[in-house]
Amino acid sequence: MAFVSGLRCRECGREYPGEALNVCDFCFGPLEVVYDYATISEVVSHDRISAGPLSIWRYHDLLPASGDDPVDIMAGFTPLLKARNLGKRLGLNNLYIKNDSVNPSYSFKDRVVSVAATKSVEFGFETIACASTGNLACSVAAHAARAGMRSVVFIPSDLERGKVIGAAVYGPTMVAVDGTYDEVNRLCSEVGDNYPWAFVNINMRPYYAEGSKTLGYEVAEQLGWRIPDHVVIPSASGAMFTKIWKGFNELACLGLLDGVEAMTFGPDQNTVHHPAITTKMHMAQAEGCSPIVNAWAGGQSHVRPVRPDSIAKSLAIGNPADGIYALRVINESDGSAYAVPEPQVVEGIKLLAETEGIFTETAGGVTISALKHLAESGAIGRDELAVAYITGNGLKTQEAVEEVVNPLLVKPTMSSFEEALEGRAAVSQ
Amino acid sequence: MGRQRVKFTFEAELVKEPIIYMLGRDFHLVTNIRRADVGETLGWVVLELDGEKEEIERGLQWVSSTGVRVDPVSGDVLQG
After folding, report:
1. Chain B residues with CB-CB distance to A30 below 8 A
2. What is the pLDDT of residues A333-382, one digit of tens each?
């Protein structure tokens, strides 16, 4: 069973039953899941978590859907890799990569969609839907296939062929919208209001977003129930960023971090900050779509929407729903936010691939370039424990790094091979 | 009849314009502001519009044409 007592508006605090709602009827503020932490604290333990499956559902006590029969394609429990080579290059002795690019549909979206799909089944929905430029569409279609549900995915009509195929293979109803980015957003919002579908980031959003907390839980568990000094996280809507922070704080408040005293959750659970959580939260966005970074850099409490123009399409959210909450987390954690210049996005992808053997998509390039900036500026100390989150797979955005393909062309003879090899060696010297 | 929840974002030069009043007057829409914040350099309003569907559509196109940004109330729906 799930320990959910309902939903609460993040702006005015009004409470609602745990239904398929995302916006407060009174002030139109976003709703968030409210948990019965008192009961959770009585049942949750390291042993209980360890005995669970090697997926996000090992943390089912802390998720808003029941773990009894989840829609699970084994999202989560992805590797946390000690990045010795990259660390050496950046002057960091304690650097780890959370490699979430190896999820079943190759991005962190499987975490949030698994929760949303499970909740959709609980609510009795027959159709699950989303609007996406890639990763989310793949994950929704894959989970729907697993659950035996119908799926409808809205995509921009000019989406790259590889991404279209990556989602279409699971058999969704695919709707290609011929319009601007803003028009697609508005249409999908209207569709979400008018059809009895589980739209993962509309009416299912409060539940869906909670899946990202597992990125915090897992890192803590994999580090031996402790938290990093720094995390570097790519951001689009800002939701994942805030949920990783929430995850760390929940673990601390529940007494699940080693050497940390449990603490009572306050009436406003969203702002609970356990004093033991000293992780500095660093946000990474690409310069072509960096509304949250802009607001942080300008010391503003508003996030001014932008029109995305970035190579990092999976981060291209011009009007981030959780922008102001992410800003608060940056400030509360004494973290930072950095907009990576567009040309450095590909540099980041190549740096990670060449040093650690991990091929990430453009969002990962943003993360690694931001990490490099933080290391070079001294914001992350040489011996501090830092974790960089890699949230999507490079196979999804191969066109971004096409120029790396430069094979030696040889005839099928040893002499031709050796001549070409010597030529390449001469060039690289 | 239709109903839509939207967010308008105003740049500084548009903050003084009576956009919401004109939207109601010229497109026969009932405008109901639920939350708003107006600063020196930026202002936003979250509101509900009631009226004929076509008029809501036309009205929002007009608002966009004035330079005011129109978004879904819950932020971008289209995600990566």
Report:
1. 74
2. 999 999 999 999 999 999 999 999 999 999 999 999 999 999 999 999 99
- CA A311 to chain CA mean position, Å: 18
**In angstroms, rounded to a whole number, what is the distance separating the alpha carbons of residues A167 and A241?**
25
Q: Which residue, among A101, A339, A95, A48, has the nearest Cα to A215 in the 3D structure?
A: A101
CATH code where residue B65 lies: 3.30.70.260
CA-to-CA distance for A292 and A147, rounded, in angstroms? 35
Quickly tell me which residue has 């500095």 as its tokens: A280
Rounded Cα–Cα distance for residues B17 and A189 (Å) = 27
Average confidence (pLDDT) over B27-37: 96
Half-sphere exposure of A368 (CA within 13 A, CB side): 34
Whether B57 is in a domain gets the answer: yes
Beta-carbon contacts of A50 under 8 Å, excluding residues fewer than 6 positions away, are A58
**B37, B75, B78 ranked by CB distance to A133: nearest:** B78
- Is residue A241 within 8 Å of A293, Cβ to Cβ? no
Closest CA to A112 of A192, A35, A210: A210
Say yes or no: A18 contacts chain B, CB-CB below 8 A: no
Does B26 map to a domain? yes
CATH topology of domain A80-106+212-404: Rossmann fold (3.40.50)
Closest CA to A244 of A312, A311, A335: A335
The answer to whether residue B79 sits within a structural domain is no
Domain limits, chain A: 80-106+212-404, 109-209
CA-nearest residue to B34 within chain A is: A27
Residues of B in contact with A323 (CB under 8 A): 75
Banded pLDDT at A75 (limits 50, 70, 90):
very high
Q: How far is A384 from chain B (nearest CA, A)?
A: 31
Question: B-chain residues within 8 Å CB-CB of A136?
Answer: 79-80
* Two domains, one topology: A80-106+212-404 and A109-209: yes
Residue range B42-71: mean pLDDT, rounded:
95
Q: How high does pLDDT run on average in chain B?
A: 92
Q: What is the mean pLDDT of residues A153-166?
A: 88
Would you call B39 an interface residue with chain A, using a CB distance cutoff of 8 Å? yes
Say which CATH class A109-209 falls into: alpha beta
C-beta atoms of A132 and B73 within 8 A: no
Share of chain A above pLDDT 70, in %: 98
Strand partners, A82: A96
Residue A190 vs residue B54, higher pLDDT: B54
Q: Which residue range is the domain that position B38 belongs to? A: 2-72
Mean pLDDT of A141-162: 93
Calpha distance A104→A143 (Å, rounded): 10
Asked whether residue B51 is assigned to any structural domain, the reply reads: yes
Percentage of chain A lying above the pLDDT 90 cut: 86
**Cα–Cα distance measured from residue B75 to residue B57, given in angstroms and rounded to the nearest whole number:** 19
The count of structural domains within chain B is 1
